[in-house]
Design a protein that fits this description.
With about 425 residues, the chain is of the alpha+beta class. It contains 7 helices and 18 strands. An 8-stranded antiparallel β-barrel has the order 10-12-13-14-15-16-17-18. A 4-stranded antiparallel beta sheet has the order 3-2-5-7. It has a 3-stranded mixed beta sheet with strand order 4-1-8, with no helix packed on it. α5 (about 85-95) packs antiparallel against α6. The chain is elongated, with a radius of gyration of 34 Å. The two termini are about 35 Å apart.
Length: about 425
Amino acid sequence: MRRFHLALLLSLSTLPPLAWSPPARAQVSDAERAAARDLFKQGDELQRAGKFPEALDKFQRAEQVIHAPTNILRIAECQAAMGRLVEAAESYRQVTHFQLSPTSPPAFQSAIDQAKGELAQVEPRVPKVTVQVTPPPAQGSQPELVIDGASVPFALVGEQIPLDPGTHTLQAKAAGYASQTETVSLKERDTKTVALKLEPAQGGATVVAPPPAGGGAPPPPPPPYGSTASPGTPPPPPPVVMESAPQAVRPRSNVGILIGAHLGAVATSGKIDTNTGTQNLNDLAAGGLGIGLDGGLRFARHWYVGVQYDHTTYSPSTTNNNQFNGYSSHSDTFGLDFAFIVNPDRVSFYGTLGLQTRIYTLAIPGLNTDTFTSGEFLAGAGIWIPLGHWFRLLPELTGGFGNFNVPTDATGTGEGHAFFTLGLVGYYNVDL
């Protein structure tokens, strides 16, 4: 079956992306549409259970009834999970070139967007082999390159040829030359070069030496050039190359619950109006350490909405002749944030926006304790790092921007401020 796939894909690679798409049927009856929907549902259940060959069959049957990017996307995912990366990449490309009509459902556009992201992950995994043939066949001969029993255009000699992970047999043929066969074992992301040497054959055929005059079997042929074996020594058996089975890929999840905690270093900027006058905030709260809790819901695969609480304790500046010696302050924040995760199943970018309320408490020795409140706009970015199935790690930089209220015993009009946090969030992840 893999030989057929190779020949088919190499021939299709010269066609426009949609030239080999299954023809769209003019009309689909309600019964056919219901049957295709049932096939897709069966395939989805099989895919989530890790039964990728059976799921692939269901999705391909559904695609034969209704040509849709949602079907082809699942076909590509099953092919990738089975280690058929070349076919998977072609299927993903077919989805990305799918032409939508104005009445196409939103799920079709979502499938196209998802295929673009997954294609970018699959393409680097496809191993490639470059075949070098020496010497070049004589002019007028009809050279042939054969990979896994399928004839490949000789024009691909010297070029990178994508193949699936596993063991492949390469052979070069040309009139007037004895063919040579080599075996290559490829892993994901491998890039290898295989040299095939054509040896001229006398009369266009392999010449067999006549038996010696005294009878008996002819002497064994001399060892290959460069070999250290003595004549008559039987060649060693070819190495046994074990092809590892493709690793099953856990089906993706579109919804999940995240519960976690964070720790961060906090720096401040801006001003604050106190009963002793307007002060630089980073003199009163030069830096601090924050701890807190996080939790929320991931939905539509890439989006996250959650709540967070943080408590931060600050130290005053020591650069102004200990003017603020003895001052102490802390803040509590309660917020709602909305985030986008590029790929929840891989290391990827994480961006967040949100709103929060900050309560800042300042204790001044010999005077009193003031409390300031502020609504803040929250923005941040980080790196989403999945650790196994249950845990997620998120190093991120966030900033909270706002204006504190002016106490009744203070003068001022309210000053702008910013709190910057370089933190690390750890989530316990439950996919639904």
